[in-house]
Specification:
This protein is mainly alpha-helical and 174 residues long. It has a domain at 55-170. It has seven helices and no strands. The chain has helices at 55-60, 75-92, 99-108, 118-128, 137-145, 149-152, 156-166. Helix 2 (75-92) packs across helix 3 and helix 2 packs across helix 5 (137-145). The longest helix has 18 residues, at 75-92. It is elongated, with a radius of gyration of 26 Å.
Length: 174
């Protein structure tokens, strides 16, 4: 291992000191054919990009015992829709999804309530139906669009309080 020249050492031992490389490579630039020059596309039906989005699927498993489904609701549809809402919240903060993102997504739609409002259940039945199937992508995007950024920016406690007072104020219906 090299040592600086000012470090005392035995004259019988030869130790090589640090030397700069003969050639310094140029700095890297994003100039490959597949690189995006304008950044990540967004808007419309493109969804919400962010790092490590697959982790939301792992986190979703921790809620399986806490979710209350009404008759006619399917767990796969509920999980897919709420994961997409959670990813929207995570992308608003520019980070990977965390457990609070999923908690807010499930809470907004009343899946964490033992006895949710029947009008909310009727909306859920209509909006979550079949969203787990791949050919319902536009339905998933419309479902995510019903949750405004202002609601997603709330803390879990503030959202829980608001949900108990007036759940409809947390959603935007067309």
């Amino acid at each position: 291992m090299s040592a600086p020249r000012h470090v005392p050492m035995s004259p019988n031992n030869y130790v090589d000191s640090y030397r700069s490389p003969e050639v310094v490579p140029p700095s890297w630039k994003a100039e490959r054919p597949g690189d995006l020059s304008s950044g990540q596309p967004s808007g419309g039906l493109m969804g919400h990009q962010g790092p490590d989005q697959g982790f939301a699927l792992r986190l979703c498993k921790t809620f399986r015992d806490r979710i209350y489904l009404a008759d006619g609701e399917h767990r796969e549809d509920v999980e897919k829709g709420c994961v997409q809402i959670a990813l929207k919240r995570a992308s608003l903060f520019g980070r990977a999804p965390v457990v609070h993102d999923l908690e807010i997504a499930f809470r907004i739609w009343g899946f964490l309530d033992l006895e949710p409002d029947q009008q909310l259940v009727a909306e859920r039945l209509k909006r979550f139906e079949g969203v787990s199937e791949g050919h319902h992508y536009s339905d998933v995007r419309r479902l995510v669009a019903t949750v405004p950024n202002e609601s997603l920016a709330m803390s879990p406690k503030a959202l829980e309080d608001q949900h108990s007072l007036d759940w409809a104020s947390l959603l935007e219906f067309e």
